[in-house]
């Protein structure tokens, strides 16, 4: 009697420990990759290239590619949108400035860069794994899907750009601002420094 209950628990315990250890190690490396955005995006580009080569080589899985494209477009909209949309929310202290005289408030994304990167990378990995199962290879005429996705992309980006212009925000910052002090060697009184 002791063996029946003991065997069930002993088989689950190592599996749960392995899963916990794997989860902790994965989170550790994920945390270590946070400040290395260029390397992370280069890795994602490599994963995307492998996926594209796989789809090209197999000549199929266009529905998977279309679904991936729609998902990435959805993530891109979240990445380019402000956390508090002035069109939908009542104007409060956290809204974007709408006039030149308003106080500067930094742009806060609805979807932060790290989550954007992680979601895209995970999506490409899942789509790549789906290419190994023939159930996902639905026969479709891919040029129609491509044209429909391009039209959807153009219309969505047009709407997003109009929104950016209307509320005067730019979702990109190109590096940290650097402030320079006085470059002259004179002191405040105008006399040369010793």
**What is the chain-wise order of helices and strands?**
HHHHH
Largest sheet, described in full?
none
Low-confidence residue ranges: none
Chain-averaged pLDDT: 82
The tally of helices reads 5
- Termini Cα gap: 91 Å
Report the helical percentage. 55-70%
List the quaternary state of the chains: single chain
- Total count of domains: 1
Radius of gyration: 25 Å
What share of residues are in beta strands? under 5%
Give the beta-strand count.
Answer: 0
Spatial shape: extended
Estimated structural class: mainly alpha
Overview of the structural elements:
The chain has helices spanning 2-32, 37-58, 62-80, 113-130, 142-167. With 194 residues, it is an all-alpha fold. The chain has one domain (12-167). Belongs to the RER1 family. This is Protein RER1. It is found in: Membrane. It holds the Pfam family Rer1.
Could you list some keywords that capture this structure?
mainly alpha; 194 residues; extended; 0% strand
What's the short story on this structure?
The protein has 194 residues and is an all-alpha fold. The chain has helices spanning 2-32, 37-58, 62-80, 113-130, 142-167. Helix 2 packs parallel to helix 4 (113-130) and helix 3 runs parallel beside helix 5 (142-167).
């Amino acid at each position: 009697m002791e063996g029946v209950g003991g065997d069930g628990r002993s088989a689950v315990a190592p599996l749960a420990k392995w899963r916990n250890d794997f989860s902790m190690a994965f989170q550790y490396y994920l945390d270590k990759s946070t400040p290395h955005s260029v390397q992370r995006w280069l890795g994602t580009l490599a994963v995307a290239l492998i996926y594209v080569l796989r789809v090209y080589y197999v000549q199929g899985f266009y529905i998977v590619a279309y679904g991936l494209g729609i998902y990435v477009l959805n993530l891109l909209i979240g990445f380019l949108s402000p956390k508090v949309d002035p069109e939908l929310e009542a104007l409060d202290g956290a809204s974007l400035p709408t006039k030149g005289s308003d106080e500067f408030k930094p742009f806060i994304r609805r979807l932060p860069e790290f989550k954007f990167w992680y979601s895209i990378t995970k999506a490409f990995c899942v789509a790549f794994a789906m290419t190994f199962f023939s159930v996902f290879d639905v026969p479709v005429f891919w040029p129609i899907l491509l044209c429909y996705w391009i039209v959807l992309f153009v219309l969505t980006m047009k709407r997003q750009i109009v929104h950016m212009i209307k509320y005067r925000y730019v979702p990109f910052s190109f590096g940290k601002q650097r402030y320079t002090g006085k470059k002259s060697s004179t002191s405040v009184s105008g006399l040369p420094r010793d």
